[in-house]
Amino acid sequence: MNRRDFLKAGSLGLAGMALWPDTFSTPTFKDCILGIQLYSVRDDMQKDPASTLQQLAKMGYRYVEHANYVNRKFYGYTPQAFKQLLDQLGLKMPSGHVVLKPSDWDASKKDFTDQWKYTLEDAAVVGQQFIISPWMDERMRENKDEILRFLDIMNRCGELCKQYHLQFGYHNHDFEFNTSFNGQRLYDLILHHTDPKLVVQQIDIGNMYGAGGRAQQIIREYPNRFLLMHVKDEIPAKANGEMNEKYESCVLGKGIIPVHRIVEEGRTIGGTRYFIVEQESYQGQAPLECVAADYAVMKQWGF
């Protein structure tokens, strides 16, 4: 199952940029967090979450991000039980993905539904700092007014999250870059109409590539807007890739995206402090082998 189907169920830096060499001296990321999106090892997490988390901890990962919250459970565990499992393995989960849907807002009451409030409550119990919505309902994307109404709901959600000591966030895919209204990309609408104090952005540098989005350009255009980043590399896909495009993700440094440069520019220009590795295709390797290789690359880059 690909990610699309799964989800459906700074001026100083700019001035010096032209002078940067193609290879960096090792930067310092001591003030940053390196994590792993558990969707990268989704099949392993489905079979044996405890063993999979233990293997990730042995690799060196200390932070994870979930992509499985169903019926108020994380990978089949209650929030309290999953928090206990993470604690036992020395892991923390500062962020997680849950789709905010239009139906989570009750327009008649001008309030969010109890179900959405339970979602925030459970995120707080498990120890999250961020609850990130990684999707936007397809039915809204054809109507700019519907988009703007939903962006207002996202801002309202950011206000609500404060009550749970959480921050609300949004994570891009590809459609934000190939959908436009009167020449304005959907992603620009999102950034212009969400309050940075209420809605943080998690930029996925790989999802956008096939739709023409280039992370370096966006980070430079919107400095200090991307507190979180999905670190991902891409190669041409032999069949349809993860976004039904012609690219699929691969081990970091093996593809065509200048990931090393983007990571450094995220830190110095984009305001990024949470770097979350994600790999969704594996080119014949085992997923756990791939994320171990990804971790080694990130450590080599200074994490």
Describe the protein.
The protein has one domain (3-7, 34-300): TIM Barrel. Strands 1-2-5-8-9-12-13-16 form an eight-stranded parallel barrel, surrounded by five helices. It has helices at residues 3-8, 11-16, 42-47, 49-59, 79-88, 114-126, 144-162, 175-178, 186-193, 215-221, 259-270, 287-300, and strands at residues 33-37, 63-66, 69-70, 73-74, 92-97, 105-106, 111-112, 130-133, 167-171, 180-181, 184-185, 199-204, 228-231, 233-236, 247-250, 274-277. It has 303 residues and is of the alpha/beta class. The chain has twelve helices and 16 strands.
Task: Please work out how many helical segments DSSP would assign.
Answer: 12
> Helicity range of the residues?
25-40%
Q: What is the CATH C-level name?
A: Alpha Beta
Low-pLDDT ranges: 10-24
Which features does this protein show?
303 residues; alpha/beta; eight-stranded parallel barrel; two-stranded antiparallel ribbon; 38% helix
What's the arrangement of secondary structure elements?
Blueprint: H1 3-8, H2 11-16, E1 33-37, H3 42-47, H4 49-59, E2 63-66, E3 69-70, E4 73-74, H5 79-88, E5 92-97, E6 105-106, E7 111-112, H6 114-126, E8 130-133, H7 144-162, E9 167-171, H8 175-178, E10 180-181, E11 184-185, H9 186-193, E12 199-204, H10 215-221, E13 228-231, E14 233-236, E15 247-250, H11 259-270, E16 274-277, H12 287-300
Helix pairs in contact: 4-12, 5-6, 10-11
